[in-house]
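Hey everyone, long-time lurker, first post.

I ran two proteins through the pipeline my lab uses and got sequence/structure pairs for each. Pasting them in order. The first:
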Amino acid sequence: MMPKAKRPVGPRPRLSAARAIVVAFGLPAVAAAEQVTVFAAASLADALAEIETAFEDATGHDLVVSLAGSSALARQIRQRAPADIFISASTDWMDAIEADGLIEPGTRFDLLGNSLVLIAFDPDAAPVEIEPGVDLSGILGDGRLAMALVDAVPAGIYGKLALQELGMWDDVADRVAQANNVRGALALVARGEAPFGIVYASDALAEPAVTVVGAFPAATHPPIVYPVADLSTRDVPAEADFLAFLRGPAAREVFARQGFAVLTE
């Protein structure tokens, strides 16, 4: 994973817009800039890129975002990787981290929701009504179905469960092209390496090279929930500032615009 490029050393401009955001969120004035390292599910890449800039301008803190599949991030946290905040695409992985005593008590909350969609590389691909009896294998033809790792990464796990619920998994299991995370699966379809794929609705919205051809009914898989928590690695005021920012109107607007269901108030 490539490190985030740092800005040139020098004083930050004190923009009136940034001061307005600080006031709007009720965040404290920053006496000294601090660094906050966030481990986040890969599906949050575009949203957190926007939020990173807004948070840094508002507070003067430095936000470092590390993106990967939730399972990989959880393993790194268990190995005491230097992360401050964890945003998972799976409650199971957050449960595991919490059971290990690796989050600060009382800091965990459900941030976002999402849904699963079937995407296609061909912009003229016919819509698919995803329901029991649909011949997904026939729709694939000679192609493969791109998915995140079906036994480790949340998007892949949800997708496999949905296909099993619909009675489709056995017909396509040997034709699934698995990627390390959901953005990898998205890229396989965007490049035309797989004609179809299963990703989150927010991922499909972020990639103009794919077309949504069907939506998986919510009842075919467990609810897709993104919990967030402050990790117990260290305790600095900037961590609480970032969690407060995630609950605020600027972050909520970004998440909603990018296709997530916002669960916080």
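...and the second, right after it:
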Amino acid sequence: MRLLDSHLHFWRIGGPGQVWPDADWPRIHRDFLPADLRAEAEGYGLIGAVLVQSQPDDRDTDWMLTLDDPLIRAIVTWVDLADGGAPDRIRHLAAQPRVRGVRPMLQGIADTDWILQPALDPAIRALLDTGLRFDALIQPRHLPVLHRFASRWPDLSIVIDHAAKPDIAAGELDPWRDGIAALAQLPNVWCKLSGLRTEQAPEQPVEALRPYVAHLLACFGERLMWGSDWPVLRHAGDSYGTWVETTLELVGPQTPDARDRLVAGAAAAFYNIDV
């Protein structure tokens, strides 16, 4: 098996623009860099990864661009889409060979409808002009809003990070289930099978994830991509290999082609990565 990880992070505590995680996240409050990833993912066929921003700060994005490691096959950056200089910043980033997308961290913005404001249109048009993708870091409250956004910009490739973070700790499937199904009807929307363990309560078994995973598979099919959300997954007590094995157990028997599409092919197609 080969893995193309669609979602992971690197950070250096105290590095440029770094504010999270802090000491309240003891399991991940240390540096995580490519060498740490190689050590933890050894033996699992990792052929590359998409490095995703973790700080809402241009300095963090600029730091990520300095990381020179062959495992980094694509980079998703942060841009302040509401800033008047956003279109120029997007064009600058798009000129960097590994940059494939932008993530504005919508989950941390109190205004659920923020992404719909007309003031962001120049930045969204710049994404379209440059071919960059849009990573949607959202919560269930954003699902109807993202549907309106994705319908308004049908040529913009969008991927839902962490399956929109359903409230697994409370065992809630609805209205998340309907919102996901509606978004999956839009051909420009994809989804990441990642980050679900972090949404569980500490005492919940892995088995509690099964209905969520089944729904994502049924809705998105070939537009569902596996991601580790490493090293954040360590906050839930998982290791890289544990989440790989857990995912394969939850998705159940698959043909070799279907499994390869989930763990490598979908991410390669969405982010235009040559594997």
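Reply from user beta_strand_b:
Welcome! Quick read of the second one: Residues 248 and 254 are 9 Å apart (CA to CA). The first strand starts at residue 3 and ends at 8.
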